[in-house]
Amino acid sequence: MIRVVLPYHLRTLAQVGKEVQLQVDGPTTLGSVLDKIEVQYPMLRGTIRDHVTQQRRPFLRFFACGQDLSLEPLDALLPEEIVMGTEPFRIVGAMAGG
Amino acid sequence: MSGVRVLVGTHKGAFILTSDSKRKKWNISGPHFAGWEIYHMNGSQADPNRLYASQSTGWFGQIIQRSNDGGQTWEPVGNKFGYDGTPGTHLWYDGTQHPWEFKRVWRLEPSLTDPDTVYAGVEDAALFRSTDGGQNWQELAGLREAKGHLWQPGAGGMCLHTIILDPSDVQRMFVAISAAGAFRTDDGGQTWRPINKGLNSGGELPDAAAEVGHCVHNLAMHPSNPGVLFMQKHWDVMRSDNAGDSWHEVSGNLPSDFGFPIAVHAHEPNTIYVVPIKSDSEHFPPDGKLRVYRSRTGGDEWEALTKGLPQSDCYVNILRSALAVDTLDSCGIYFGTTGGQVYASADSGDSWMPIASNLPAVLSVEVQTLQ
């Protein structure tokens, strides 16, 4: 199972805990994980990437295994630790300060 | 038992204030959607328990929430606002053309007769309609054919912020856009035309009387008199007696004719309310005195309403969607401030009391009168 850590506001929107688990069929790519999130949690459609352009929202980044994968193409394979579920795929919002 | 439900959208969530018809004691529920910007919440006249809320942030974009129980529980519905066809371009700040890009929903206006039909006014300015309770949205693209390439954003964004449905003619609607102006359809939204004749924007536009480009802040209409419209423009309070075909200024003796919201009394079609702001450069009340101004003559002659409102050291703003009225026998007037206060008057504005004092900055106020 793929483990995904969501930012706080998407957890409350999807009514889930800090981490969700996904079964991804086929190659585990950045795009297939994002697709699966949106299938399993349809209320998150449009919140991680724009509905029309499919571009990642500018205040969000994708981190995994100590790497920033935000600029990787959607067909990029994710690290083996993500595929095996030993490390989570993290969707992280930009810090907001006062 | 009758009462009122005040729907308050703020920078950090939604709040619902309820009271009986005396409007003395208030219950506050919220924050709903805590931490999100709630640009607007509105209820259906056909089913008062059906509410819609526009929820957004810069991080996660736009969400539309729907309630079927008066705001006790909510469910996210459709949030895909795709412009019809190739959206084209509009004027940008520097005078160049810029692609249309969806940013957020500023206004949700449910149909007068069908709780599942609702209109959404969005930034970049366009009008969308859902006929399935907000699940799916279709653009009424004819609006942007009304010289959309000449529309331009104001500093707050190019937003469609006002939607008025004519209760006497289901084919007629009015919308207002900053900074494009006011527009009317007479065929249910298929085609639109600018209705800005008489507006003077010499301080903002190279052509003071341009057909489009005016920064209209808000429109108001009394349902019993749908041919008469009132407008708070960037500067100037305006009135039309022919459904927007032409406008004339009714700023009269206001201390400043700059402001954002305008509203009409529920039972007196010629009684209107504005909240003057010092200027476009200083968005707070003149002299630090928070004064609602009322005209019982449909404009020109205004009186300050001050009882219960701070009359010194007050430097809040009242945004365009943050003034509303109820329809109880003694008409209630409500407004919210960027300082987080919501003020209410149960006597047509003669006296006021705060019904919430420490909310986040208020973006919008709507009122439902419950029977």
What does this structure look like?
The complex is a heterodimer of chains A (98) and B (371). Chain A has 98 residues and is an alpha+beta fold. Helix content of chain A is 23%, strand content 20%. Chain A contains three helices and five strands, in the order βαβαββαβ. Chain A has helices at 8-14, 30-40, 80-84; strands at 2-5, 19-22, 60-64, 67-68, 89-93. In chain A, strands 2-1-5-3-4 form a five-stranded mixed sheet. Chain A is globular and about 40 Å long. By secondary structure, chain B is an all-beta fold. Chain B has one domain (82-356): YVTN repeat-like/Quinoprotein amine dehydrogenase (Methylamine Dehydrogenase, Chain H). Chain B is 0% helix and 39% strand. Chain B is built from no helices and 30 strands. In chain B, strands 3-2-1-30 form a four-stranded antiparallel sheet, with no helix packed on it. A four-stranded antiparallel sheet of chain B has the order 4-5-6-7, with no helix packed on it. A four-stranded antiparallel sheet of chain B has the order 10-11-12-13, with no helix packed on it. Chain B starts with a strand and ends with a strand. The model of chain B has no long low-confidence stretch (mean pLDDT 97). The chains are: A alpha+beta (98), B mainly beta (371). The A-B interface holds A 7-10, 12-13, 43, 45-48, 50-52, 57, 59-60, 93-94 and B 34-36, 57-63, 76, 79-82, 102.
Record keyword descriptors for this entry.
heterodimer, A: 98 residues, alpha+beta, five-stranded mixed sheet, 3 helices, globular, B: 371 residues, mainly beta, Methylamine Dehydrogenase, Chain H, four-stranded antiparallel sheet, 30 strands
